[in-house]
Structure formats: structure tokens, C-alpha cells
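Morning - iron/sulfur cluster inputs below, output right after.
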Amino acid sequence: MNIVAVYSDKVFQSHEKPMANQQVIPFGITFVATVLKKAGHNVQTLFISPATDIPQAIRQMVEEKKPRMILFTAVTSQYPVIVQAAREVRKIDPSIYNTLGGHHASLAPQDCIAEEAFDSVCVTEGEAAALEMARMLESGQRPTGIENLWIRRADGSIEKNPMARLNEDLDSLPFIDRDLWAPWMMDPGTILPIIISRGCPYRCTYCTNHAMSKLAEGRYLRFRSFENILAEMKEVLERWPTVTQIYFEAETFGANLKYALNFLARLKEFNATRERPIEWGFNLNVTKKTMNNQQLWFAMQEAGVGYVNVGLESGSERVRKDVLRRPEHSNEDIIQFCDNARQHGVDVCFSVLIGIPGETLEDYNETVDVVRRSDPAHCYPYILFPYPGTDMHETAKKMGLLDHAIDNTAERSRAVLDLPGFSKWRIQWEFIMFHWKTRKGSWSLIKRMVYTAKNGVKVFPNLFSEVLHIGRTNSLARFFYRRLSNAPDASSV
Ligand code: B12
Ligand code: SF4
């Protein structure tokens, strides 16, 4: 059966090849598409960006690929785009079966199934549900009685099926089929991500994990075995021998320290067999288990870990503990963590939230101070966006911050909440001025200016994408950008 998987994003690299590299492959829908392909279906993809003429792209896709079923996925901010695409499909051929999955669908299924352009909505994991849907459609039946699915019946009523247990054996899943996105990708052979786990043991209020963990029975935090990951690594490196970096996607690598230490020892062995060692990257939380753990730092150095992504989120200990429910640590711990990383040759890349409900300008100034004192190699500021289904969304609602519709066109770079102690305009200003303030004394004036201008442009994602497009297609612009900012790549956002 012909099936098309549709994914959208607010940023594009160039009009012809909107996806930068494998780092932006959406794992969720790709797992679903891969199991369908392995079951013998003809699965193709469509990527939608702000440069896409949606009616025209959908018409062309329907005419050329003749799908019987379309898989849609969306984060909250992309949902309106995906709805528009699904409605276009309906207009052209109402017999095509539209199904939606992903985090927004899982956490707001009642809203999504109310949208008539979708025939069904998948809550949490979708591999088994999609296989069953495709089997029924292929045999001429209307999908019904499938676990994890909310299905619109012919009479318009909604069938809410029970939830399946989470898949606790991640090794049972196939390796994602990365070639599915090849037609849209600019640079598949430089850096690639490998997903090594699902779930997270923490319950941060602004993240979807605490909400997702309540939806289905079964162990929420699951890891793949190293053997299984190694087999995927070998396969992808054979396919793209030019790859120099592998990013292991796990919510937090240090969640299971025994697993992490064994993993690093195996990576060291792996790199020892290679002429050109691979640089590794992970997500890592600052916790009592990780921050001063010399065994862990030494193991990372030996394995060739180049960088770790760390969620600082706020420099206010009160905001971290009482508002964000972050794993507990002090600001001094973070500074020590960064020192440890430097000593072991590991770059730290912070992410920081600005405009958190309950945050004041004074709290935010503490963030600036902690970033300055920690001096991480990279630091990305994001403006908080409250996702439906999360505790943070409830807090924002109770504070009366969501009484108006919120703008989702520039998620995380455009201020959406007007806080009592931190106005919307001030949040926006601080986002733009982030590098200017935090890198005073550590970066050159010109580099601070380039990064400040870059954050200013990010407030307008279409403009930002057009700048990326010029940077990608014009070698002079690319040269100057690199010289001025000392940035690894124009695509790094
Ligand atoms: C890797 C990752 C990325 C990658 C890949 C993007 C992607 N869409 O996968 C990158 C770096 C590009 C990225 C970017 C962004 N991300 Co992100 N990302 C993640 C992360 C850490 C892992 C996602 C993942 O692979 N999970 C594992 C897979 C297997 O699970 P899954 O995605 O849930 O998929 C399963 C089911 O949902 C379902 N399913 C999914 N799609 C479909 C479709 C159909 C038809 C069916 C039947 C089933 C189905 O089946 C899948 C397999 O079982 C999650 C956090 C998390 N807990 O998952 C955040 C997360 C998904 N990201 C998030 C956000 C907000 C973003 C950005 C908007 C950030 C930004 N401002 O730039 C962008 C949006 C990109 C986009 N256009 O979607 C939020 C979404 C919250 C929300 N409710 O909207 C999350 C949940 C993190 C958070 N803060 O809570 N992200
Ligand atoms: S540690 Fe990270 S992934 Fe885990 S719940 Fe907190 S924000 Fe989400």
C-alpha cells in the first residue's frame, strides 16, 4: 500500500533541501514509517517548511505518490501547519486515511480528534498501531479496535481504544530508515544522531515527559543494549563513511550510571579500531551522581566525548527547584561541573529558558551570572513555551497567562507570555541580548555582535531561514559568517 509520512518544521536550510543534516530526522514518525516499510508498504515522505506552498505540495504529493494512508506528526507549534496539510488532503481526496501522532496528539488527543481532517489520533507509541491500521485498510476494512488509537467512526462518534503497554524491549525495533528523508536533506554525511533510549526519570514541569509517562503502563525509562546500538552504528558508518560526529539521543545519559560507564568503555574500544575516531555527544544532567564523578569524566575523556548538552534552564536555585522541578544541584555545582568538563576536554553546551512563569527579572539576572561564571563552550537561550498537558501549562493557565491565543510561529525565540515580574517585551529583549550580556569579557566584541544579531533574526523564523539559505548557497556569505562568529556551521541554531 502507498503511504506518505509528513513532517514539518519552522526552519529550513535551503528551498530545495530544507533539512540540514541527520540531526533533524524526526525519530518518532520515522520509526513508524520504518516498520511499515519493513512490512512491505511503499512509504515515502513529504517535508513542509514555511517556504512550502502547502496546497500545491499536497496536490503534487497526492497525484504523484497516490497514498492510501498519510502519517502526520506534530509538536504543538507545528500543529496548525499539519492541520492545514491534512485539510488539503481531505479536499483533494476524502478517501485517503489521515492519521496523526506525536507529542501534541498524545497530550491533547481530544482537541486533535475534533479536527475532522484526521481519521485517527495515536496516543504515545505508534509502531504497532500503524501496522494494524495499514493491515486493515489494505484488506478493505475501516480501522477499528486498535490499541492507542482514538478513531473517528463513520457516524462521527469517537472510538477511544485502550492503551497498550509501552514497548520495554527497544532492541526489538528496527533501525530507523534514514534514507526516507534523503530527498529533503542537505548534508547527510557529517553528523548523525542515534537514539539510545526512550523516557526520562525526571519530572520537569515544562517538559512533556512527566505527562507522557502517565499515559501508558510499563517501564517508562528504557535503554537499548550496547550491542544493538553498535550494530546500528556500524551500519550507518558503512553507509556514510564521512561522518565525524555521532550524537546519542537519550533524555539524560547519566540516568543509569552503570549503563553510562559501560557504554563509554565500549565507545573507547570502538574508536580504538578506527583510523579516524568519531567524536561523541550526549545529553547529560548535572546531578549528585554526575557532577563530580571523576570516573565518569575520565571515561568520557577516554571514549572521545566531544560535548555534552546540559539543561541549566535557570540560574535561580528557587526557580529550578520550585518552578521547574529540575534535578537538584546548586549553582556552585554547575560551575564545578563545567570546570570538570574543561579539564577532561569535553565542551559543555547549556540550554537556558527565559520567561518562565514565576520568574522575575532578578531571577533571570542570576541566570546571566551563572552562565558567565560557568563559561560553557556553547549556550542556547530559549523562550519558554507552555506545552498542553504539562504542569507548566496548568501553572500558566492558573496565572491567567493563557487567556489569549499564543503565537506559535516562532516557538522558543518569540516571547509569548507577559509575566508579572518580567514583561513580554523585556523577555524578548533579554533573548536578543543574551550572548551580549553573558559573554562579556569572554568573547570578542565582533563575535558578541554576530550572535546578538543572530538572535534578533531568530525572532522571525522565515527571515532566519532565508539567511540560512543565503549562508548555505553563497560561499562568500558563508566564509564571512564563519570568520566573524567562529561558529562551527551556519546551521547551528
Ligand atoms: C529528538 C528531539 C528533537 C529532534 C528531532 C525532532 C523530532 N520531531 O523528533 C530535533 C532536535 C530536530 C527537535 C526539534 C524540536 N523539538 Co524536539 N525533541 C526531541 C526529543 C528529545 C526526542 C524525540 C524522540 O525521538 N522521541 C522518541 C520517539 C520514538 O518517540 P516519539 O517522538 O514520541 O514518537 C512516538 C509516538 O509519539 C508516535 N508517533 C509520533 N509520530 C507519529 C505519527 C503517527 C502517524 C503515528 C501513528 C504515531 C506517531 O509513535 C512514535 C514511535 O513510537 C523529544 C523529547 C521526548 N521525550 O521525546 C523532544 C520534543 C519532541 N521536542 C519538542 C520541541 C518543542 C521541539 C522544537 C519545537 C524545538 C524548537 N523550538 O526548535 C523542535 C520542533 C521540530 C519539529 N518540527 O518537530 C517537544 C515537543 C513538545 C510539544 N508538545 O510540542 C519535546 C517533547 C521536548 C519537550 N520540551 O518536552 N527535537
Ligand atoms: S531532565 Fe530533561 S528530558 Fe528529563 S524531564 Fe527534565 S527536561 Fe525533560
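Note: The radius of gyration is 23 Å.

O.
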